[in-house]
Write a structure and sequence with these properties.
The chain is of the alpha+beta class. It has 11 helices and 17 strands. It folds into 2 domains: 36 residues; 365 residues, Nucleoside Triphosphate Pyrophosphohydrolase, CATH 3.90.79. Helix 8 packs across helix 9. The longest helix is centred in the first third of the chain and has 34 residues.
């Protein structure tokens, strides 16, 4: 073999190495771009219930700039884009990449349990003594809107709910509230059709706004203002790396369930009045915790799983995060919670979820969906942010880190 042939062979081998090296680098770069754009998240769509906390943070990063969408009954932009509630909107500092910016949330923060976990709200008299009455005037004005809502959702039924009539701050840092009975149909006439016209240039939102276009105190509001509850469910795996160890429950909601349908949701519901109108304890936080547990069990079947394993309910930790008033629905009261449970796998939960009271009615199968194509509902987005604030509270950060 002459010298020129050897040079040609060496050149050919070098070219092959260059080609394969280039392909390897290109593949790595493409994988990086693929991951960065969130497409790698589709690998998780084979799951039904749980997604790594890094997945939730990734969706959250892409969700912060998405519009809330539109509704026939509620103008979602009223809370953040119009000149309403300018002094009420909550702001949080979030870190995405290397930059820290402010994120506006459509809620007014009332009680921060992350900073002040011992804060309590005493229920006046420990019981309910009255029922919410919208009055003949507003009942007549909202009749067309009520009929239109039921026409669009013919399966809607009137269920029990608990209205916060007033909330006052005590000198000792705690609160006192007066509660009333109400029903879902009261919400339909007020908070759930709040931007539909009830007269020339008027709506229930504009009727209820204070003169400076901020929220009125609850005791002055004409809306139903029933109390809602929402919780982020986190289960921690015994094994796994930092990015995948904490698993978050997320599911797309079905079209006819709640206000924020066709969006990624979590466990949520409405607080119901106690049997006989007498509360088992006079602290609203404790009663709200029992109500989110009821919703949690009904929507997931986790109580059936506990029974099958003969595990006590005490293994379920319910952490109050924040009490707020939701601006999108005109100041509706809302508790945000974090629910933490021991490790449970997809296969362990599936049979009990299928037997749950209404989990299969509330949520769509995530297997048939590309999760990253869904937006977080405002409720889930805010609940996730508060849950992350709680999880990261020991990091002594002045922002919420949304990076992996």
């Amino acid at each position: 073999m002459d010298y020129r042939s050897i040079i040609e062979i060496i050149g050919a081998v070098a070219s092959l190495f260059a080609i394969f090296g280039g392909l390897f680098v290109a593949k790595r770069y493409a994988h990086h771009i693929w991951r960065r754009n969130g497409k790698y998240l589709n690998e998780y769509t084979r799951h039904s219930f749980f997604y790594p906390l890094s997945f939730a943070k990734h969706i959250l990063r892409h969700n912060v700039s998405k519009p809330l969408g539109d509704s026939q009954f509620i103008d979602y932009s009223s809370a953040l884009e119009k000149d309403y509630y300018s002094h009420d909107v909550a702001t949080v500092r979030v870190k995405i990449g290397k930059s820290v910016s402010e994120l506006r949330l459509p809620y007014k923060e009332i009680i921060d349990y992350i900073k002040h976990p011992d804060t309590t709200t005493q229920i006046a008299g420990g019981r309910i003594d009255s029922r919410f009455d919208l009055g003949e005037h507003y009942t007549a004005l909202t009749q067309d809107n009520f009929d239109e809502f039921l026409k669009s959702r013919p399966n809607t039924v009137d269920g029990p709910a608990l209205r916060m009539q007033s909330l006052t701050h005590n000198g000792d840092g705690n609160y006192r509230c007066v509660l009333q009975r109400a029903g879902y149909f009261d919400q339909v006439r007020t908070n759930l059709t709040i931007d539909m016209p009830i007269g020339l240039g008027s709506s229930m939102r504009t009727e209820d706004l204070a003169p400076d276009k901020q929220l009125r105190p609850l005791q002055e509001s004409i809306l139903a203002n029933t109390i809602g509850v929402s919780a982020i469910w986190v289960t921690s795996l015994r094994k796994g790396d930092r990015r995948s160890r904490h698993q978050v429950f997320l599911r797309p909601r079905r079209k006819q369930t709640g206000v924020y349908y066709d969006l990624l949701g979590t466990v949520s519901g409405v607080v119901e009045a106690p049997e006989g109108d007498v509360f088992p304890c006079n602290k609203l936080e404790e009663y709200a915790k029992s109500e989110i547990l009821r919703e949690f069990y009904q929507e997931t079947g986790y109580n059936l799983y506990l029974d099958s394993r003969q595990m006590p309910e005490s293994v379920v930790e319910v952490v109050p995060l924040m009490f707020v008033r939701e601006l999108i629905r005109g100041g509706k009261p809302q508790f945000f919670f974090l629910i933490v449970t021991p490790e449970i796998s997809e296969s362990q939960l599936t049979p009990f979820f299928k037997k749950s009271y209404n989990g299969t009615e509330e949520f769509r199968s995530a297997i048939d969906s590309r999760m990253f194509n869904y937006s977080l509902s405002p409720e889930t987005q805010t609940n996730l942010i508060y849950a992350l604030r709680y999880i990261q509270r020991n990091h002594h950060l002045n922002f919420i880190d949304l990076n992996d």
